[in-house]
Amino acid sequence: MAENPEVLSAYVAHLRRIWGRHGSPGAEQIAGRTQGQLFPMSALQVEECLRGETIPESSLELHVLLYGITNGYGRAWSKRPEEAEPEVTPAFRLWRDVTGAPAEPATAPQPAVHDHDPQPSARGVVEMAVEVATYLGAAGIGGIIGNRADSVVTRTASRLFQSVRDRWQSRGADGHLSEEEAVDAAIAAALAHDYHLESLRVTSAEERSDGSWRVSLAAPGLTLRVLVPTGDLAEATILIIPE
User: Fold this and answer.
1) pTM of the entire structure?
2) Half-sphere exposure of 101 (CA within 13 A, CB side)
3) 189: exposed, middle or buried (Cβ count in 10 Å: 0-12, 13-18, 19+)
4) How far apart are the first and last CA of the chain?
């Protein structure tokens, strides 16, 4: 966390401006809106966030806080680029300044190397594979994925994967993911490869004849084509193809 109190003050002031523009809802009301989200908050946590005594640990947690404050924002990753939320954009920049989280890279992260020796795409970019079961396990045991120690990024991706699987199972596990579930799974896979949540936008989601989904995400400098298979995520491998 940044030691400069001016940075923290600027972040809190902007957060409270957003809060004021949306009618200054009470902490209980904000907390109630976050129930059912990935990171449900208590009224005390909301009050501490608005005073700057607690800072969201990840950008996804900040999304949930903003969802509660504005009564609707928080699924910004499902919006198209032309539907940007300008009032919250500075909140993420200031949050990064406070927490010391890395800024969005000027270029896309380099794809990880996998044991299955993925084939280069037509444009010479290596496909990235995400074995979802590994992340579901990490969500429960807080363990290590490959050689990478558990981190905020890993926990966030794990929690989002688990949320998708829970929703899928609650519908009777009929084999097909809904569009929202497929989009969230694609986002979780991108998070697992170090893309920033606030930099991703969904441009399309197409269900294919076999029940799988092809989700297109706009990221800095490129498009990610994410192939989400049908069925139980615990048995799924999601492919990310940068273009």
Assistant:
1) 0.63
2) 23
3) buried
4) 35
Q: Going along the chain, which residue ranges are E strands? A: 128-131, 201-207, 213-219, 222-228, 237-242
Structure tokens at 41: 């908050």
3-state secondary structure 93-152: HHHHHHHCCCCCCCCCCCCCCCCCCCCECCCCCECEEEEHHHHHHHHHHCCCECCECCCH
Residue 74 β-bridge partners: 72
CA distance 197 to 219: 9
pLDDT at 83 over 60: no
pLDDT tens sequence across 13-70: 999 999 998 899 999 999 998 886 667 889 999 999 999 999 988 777 888 888 889 8
101 burial via Cβ count (<10 Å: 0-12, 13-18, 19+): middle
Residue 5, number of CB atoms within 10 A of its CB: 9
Q: How far is CA 230 from CA 54, 105, 217, 225, in A?
A: 39, 32, 19, 16
pLDDT digits (tens, 9 = 90+) for 146-183: 444 446 678 788 888 888 888 888 887 667 898 888 98
Tokens of 187: 């986002």
What single DSSP character describes residue 182?
Answer: H
Asked if 226 and 95 count as a contact pair (C-beta separation under 8 A), the reply is no
Residue 231 DSSP symbol = S
